[in-house]
Amino acid sequence: MKVTMARYTGPKARINRRLGTMLYETAGASRAMDRRPQPPGMHTRGRRPSNYGAALMEKQKIKHYYGLGERQLRRYFENVGRKSGNTGELLLLMCERRLDNVVRRVGFTKTRPQARQGITHGHFRVNGVKVTKPGYMLRAGDLIEVRGRENLKNLYRGVIANSPPDGLDWVSFDSETLRATVLSLPGAVDISLPVDANSVVEFLSR
């Protein structure tokens, strides 16, 4: 497995098949998942993972989907563990508020890795300030916009034209001005990853 910091750079289709979920949304990974949905390897069919193995798989889904490293995930877990409420749900809601996740979900990019790359290259501003950290935690009222360079605006307009965004209830998006406004914090219905977060909480609590 090839990993650079928190970013997985190995075969994405293999991760999708291993974990049984479309975590990586590239066209190639999607086609591979359609052709061979079963997990990779000769001896994996029919096996049921142990409780530990199942929880580990759920944790891996969160890490790959949101682009988190182990230490980053545990920091999030420690953060939400101090709050009241369902810890698993709070963990996923924190992930949903990441800048790279919102950039992807409103339709600026087709995948989260593309969103992370654009952010680290300084393509986006939050409240008028350039932000280069994909894990920047958004708050209600924050304004996300593509920087004023015409080449960047043309780049993202092209992405949006080829793949119109689905829209989010908690973020408004103007494809003409290339601006997204966080209207409110996300709720449980806004979580985009189907995962057993409670088993992940139990795993991380060990």
TrEMBL record:
Any Pfam family matching the protein: S4
Annotated ranges, domain RNA-binding S4: 97-164
Protein name in UniProt: Small ribosomal subunit protein uS4
NCBIfam families associated with the record: PRK05327.1 (NF003717), rpsD_bact (TIGR01017)
Gene source species: Rhodopirellula bahusiensis
CDD domains named in the record: S4
Region of interest: Disordered: 30-50
InterPro entries reported in the protein's UniProt record: Ribosomal_uS4, Ribosomal_uS4_bac-type, Ribosomal_uS4_N, S4_RNA-bd, S4_RNA-bd_sf
